[in-house]
Specification:
- By secondary structure, the chain is α/β, with parallel strands linked by helices.
- The protein folds into three domains: 3-100 and 201-264, Adenylosuccinate Synthetase, Chain A, domain 1; 105-196, Adenylosuccinate Synthetase, subunit A, domain 2 (Orthogonal Bundle); 267-424, Alpha-Beta Complex (Adenylosuccinate Synthetase, Chain A, domain 3), CATH 3.90.170.10.
- 33% of the residues lie in helices and 20% in strands.
- The protein has 13 helices and 20 strands.
- The strands form five sheets. Strands 9-7-5-2-10-1-11-15-19-20 form a ten-stranded mixed beta sheet, sandwiched between helices.
- A hairpin with a 2-residue loop joins β16 and β17 (353-355).
- The two termini are 20 Å apart.
- Bound molecules: guanosine-5'-diphosphate (GDP), 6-O-phosphoryl inosine monophosphate (IMO) and magnesium ion.
- Guanosine-5'-diphosphate (GDP) is lined by residues 8, 12-18, 42-44, 46, 296, 300, 331-332, 334-335, 414-417.
- Guanosine-5'-diphosphate binds at residues 8, 12-18, 42-44, 46, 296, 300, 331-332, 334-335, 414-417.
Length: 426
Amino acid sequence: MPGIVVLGAQWGDEGKGKATDLLTTEDAIDFCVRTSGGHNAGHTIVVDGQKFATHLLPSGILTPGCTSVIGNGVVVSPEALFREFDALIERQVPMGQLVVSSNAHVIASYHSIVDKVTERFLGKNKIGTTGRGIGPAYADKINRVGIRIADIFDEGILSEKVEAALEVKNHLLTKVYNRRAISVDEVVEDLRGYAERLQPMVADTSLLLNQALDDGKTVLFEGAQATMLDVDHGTYPFVTSSNPVSGGVCVGAGVGPTRIDRIIGVIKAYTTRVGSGPFPTELFDEDGEKLWRIGGEVGVSTGRDRRCGWYDAVVARYSARVNGLTELFMTKLDVLSSWERVPVCVAYDVDGLRHDEMPMTQTEFHRATPIYEYLDGWGEDISGCRAFDDLPKNAQRYVRELEGMSGVPFWAVGVGPGRDQTVVVS
Ligand code: GDP
Ligand code: IMO
Ligand code: MG
């Protein structure tokens, strides 16, 4: 099983970090690879009661012997990269090697400035981005004025490219947004400051990963963001600016689709979302507050409260379809333990019409209201369960019902944040 993808099946924060960590430690993963997004991600790993959060670094960094790779599809802020790296060094945790693609695009200081002013300008229509410069960095990539990691090592080329990137931006910043212009020299000096430390980490990661796969090594592609935040398949425009779906993995790593053997979707036993955009099962009542409280639903990257709602089986089916999921890993089943009945959205009502699949247009999705089925709760703590048969019968039934609705086998279920708090579905 050399090529494994782990990705988010909802709106992010499903527990991808935990799933990655689990696979990395248990299945002798040789490489752990990020292929899209940047330091907008926040992945939590809990090891022996100690909590770690990774943002730009692959979660496999905490497993010595596993090489962590930042692929060409990622947008890299060198400042964020070394801040995160140094924080782990400071905690004196054993770490694996880190390799960064020479073709990954750079997030420079001006990208987060543009991200923030654009959001302010959008007012009530804002996306609710993380403000980390992700969208503007991907926009530059597509506009062919991006800076790539390899450019940092040649001062002449870097200056030329930064100048080209800032030409239009400085007009916008000064004339539209009423901001000061950004100096080319300032940006070049800042990026050059990382060159010496960065250079030994940089490689042709597509070559590295393909050779590893040829040699029968196991490569885990760790998703960031999620299916419903995908720029093509998510709730556009309330999405991130990359392709977190499984198809994006090949582009973002430089490997062919034939190299992927397993595609694991990570999904919460309920739903959360950060930032703006439609969310049919969102709760505004006591149940929503209770999910938020018991689930500890506060963003790892931005500290924003996550919006909470019931499980949405339409989203699960959609994710299974657009990603070609081979299995699902359901997290946070333990959070639902105190409800007598648990509602599950099985379809939507859109203007009086039942939709069993994702509506075709965003306008319809904005108007979708959930049609619920109610499953019996189990009313007892399950955080100590370590085998599927240990789970109360109604918890087993909840898992089996949701499995049936998604059309994809469930591989495992999370019953707590710890590495060991996982039950394999048998
Ligand atoms: P990611 O972005 O997909 O990696 O997820 P986050 O780390 O942003 O958010 C998931 C949160 O759920 C983290 O606080 C995890 O420690 C926690 N978590 C993961 N799996 C479980 C689980 O099965 N039960 C509980 N209670 N918490 C979990
Ligand atoms: P992980 O990997 C949840 C959301 C932001 C915003 C939208 C666009 O931890 O699951 P961006 O800064 O990417 O341009 O913001 O996407 N978003 C996430 N929400 N989890 C994430 O990552 C997210 N990364 C981006 O809140 O709504
Ligand atoms: Mg997260």
